[in-house]
Batch of 2 targets.
Target 1
Amino acid sequence: MSRIVYVNGRWVPEEQAQVSVFDRGFLFADAIYEVTAVIDRKLIDYAGHLARLKRSLEALSIPLPFTDDELLGLHREIVARNELESGLIYLQISRGAADRDFLFAADMAPSIVMFTQKKNILENPKWKTGLTVKTMPEGRWMNRQIKTVQLLYSSMMKMEAERAGADDAFLVEDGYITEATSSNVHIVTKDRRLVTRHLSNALLHGITRASVLSLAKEVALQVEERAFTVLEACDAAEVFITSASAFVMPVVRVDDAVIADGRPGPISQKLLEIYIKDRMASAI
Ligand code: PDD
């Protein structure tokens, strides 16, 4: 079945979904996005994604042409129209279309696109094995807290990691890990502290990160929000990443360093379990 995609006020089969070649999202990466997980037709962590969407738009002075109710309505409608039991909703808002110019008018009409990706996100085979990662230099711009569609560097680094036989890349700036290519990175120290980089413009403020931190006390972990080095990660009891698509994903190797015994650790596994339980209970 072809997906039904939302494009600028219309619901169309994916083959007919089109935006202008003059769209600034296409020409300048002048667009922001959100990815929200769906389980049992319900939205996971929706309030967090909505709040970040608004922050990203505000940072770029792109207006949101919907009320909260209308936007929630669009999410519900795309789930219903695509019979999306489990998977992801991708929402992108660009500044809109105009003749190519580095300057843009203040009153442009934004372009809005939404589509779904069906997948059984409650059965990720990588949760059992964990990921291997390669460290790579950080090369993105300095406003990573804005969820823009400027994903080329991350995409290139993920390709390079794959060519090197790894699953993902950790981006490193001045010896400290900023993020993985599309997720936040966390370590559990041998004395049970959950160390995660503090919020700043160096990283995206992950919604899953925030939820997992709020659950840390349930596994008797003390949270420490600060930058940590590659060396600390290699020496950690556990390393894991978080994102709306992989939830809590263990990392078992960083470059040549095997983390602990090379298998997903008990704390990451427990955090994954309680994250899913807790977030499904609050899904809308
Ligand atoms: N990526 N950091 C980066 C650079 C990301 O792209 C993402 C999410 C995260 C995790 O944020 P959250 O927990 O809110 O999903 C961190 C999404 C899933 C993507 O681009 O597909």
Target 2
Amino acid sequence: MTSYVFITGGVVSSLGKGITSACLGAILEARGLTISMIKLDPYINVDPGTMSPFQHGEVFVTHDGTETDLDLGHYERFVRTAKGGRHSNYTTGRIYESVIAKERRGDYLGATVQVIPHITDEIKQGVKKGAGDADICLVEIGGTVGDIESLPFLEAIRQMGIELGHDRVVYVHLTLVPYIPTSSEIKTKPTQHSVKELRSIGIQPDILVCRSEKPLPDDERKKIALFTNVQEKAVISAWDADDLYKIPAMMHDQGLDGIVTRQLGLDLPKADLHEWDAIVEAKQNPSAEVNVAMVGKYMDLKDSYISLVEALQHGGIHTRTRVKIHYIESKDIEEQGIDCLKEMNGIVVPGGFGDRGIEGKIDTVRFARENGIPYLGICLGLQVAVIEAARNLAGLDGAMSTEFDKKTPHPVVALITEWQDQTGDTEERSEESDMGGTMRLGAQSVALQQGTLAATSYGSTEIEERHRHRYEVNNNYRDRLSEAGLVFSGLSVDDLVEMVELPGHPFFLASQFHPEFTSNPRDGHPLFTSFIAAAREHNAGELPEAAEA
Ligand code: GLN
């Protein structure tokens, strides 16, 4: 029987509710529990797939190909048993879409369809599906208490508390405890008000997690407990950590996992956090440093590549390397030249959509190839590597992806429908289809060619990785590109290009899939580990030495 922990947020947004939820999941899992994790998002978009990464950060893709909120990425990185999927992320839009579809079908038998009970029932059903058969399901409610949009979600979780009882439901509320420098004071009032707001809609939090710059002094902890009707020991301090991976221990040291498991009546072994301790230790004691450039767009919004940034850091953890990431707008390379890449030990071109800065990315690939700088291309980063090889190795002038130039003389990357005439294959995906409906999404298996850099990095010739893209390498150009030296080291079961590499180069590897979605700090990811090891080697005087974190 699954128990639930609901996590709400108050005072302001961006307090790190996703990370807090993920860390709580990690310390509960460390006590031997299986955990599922759900995010409820109050916005009207049916899923975040069509939202600009500028506004909403990265779109995280789950194993089953669901486009979800980036918090699902935190959950999977921190909790091994939490495997996200179709039922792990609900938005207001998706809930309403489903209720309206039912209403149109006549499922409500003529009833007046209302927020309570129809919308709230739909939310509760969704949560139960997402919970699966885990011991504990953690449900994070997006937004801030007091927002109009989140009310139906809060009402649904209030009802679940009544229906399941206090020994199966725990409410955690995350707030901000600001420090006012002019009066040198810590202020608990916003927390008091936020809890008041939550109680006014019928939810009494069991645990408060108070975000603050410094650890919360005892006096403030007492005061918050008194005013919010929360036990003093259940007022947890979450101060700004210099390293994300210190947070599980920070929470465990204050007894957070014990408070939850006691309320749920679970008698469990002590939390085993040795893997998290090892990560912190590895991060604090690197034996080398590398400079890695990430060349793309939206570089001023780091959240748009959060999984990739994390995966590079995981590569650092597993090779004991400090990874310094330099975010470079590809447009700047077009306008100011390539000099900014000269000091780099590794270059990454991440996934992306739209033509802004595309020539800058192609120039970046050329620079990495000609100067022997380790190159890792991801999704669009593979496509630009193919375009660059077509232009400069195979002599196919004007080669391009049809995403950026419909009239290119050499569509080396194109929609399958654009190259099917010559192969005779049928392909139902097309540009006219619904947005979000045309993508190759989710995990698919990839066959790696024995002896290639891809296969040696993975230590296997059969892998499974997640996808999120529309365009493919045009198979009609494969022979010409192979003759020019490009090796197609990974192929899908339906013979689409999944990985390319350049033998003779210290490390030149690109994937059509997104390996960053399956990287986590404890296990690392073979591609990122070998890329960072290559960057170390590039860094003069340093020998790569893979260390187990
Ligand atoms: N824009 C490219 C495509 O749709 C690449 C997508 C990506 O990098 N995720 O195929």
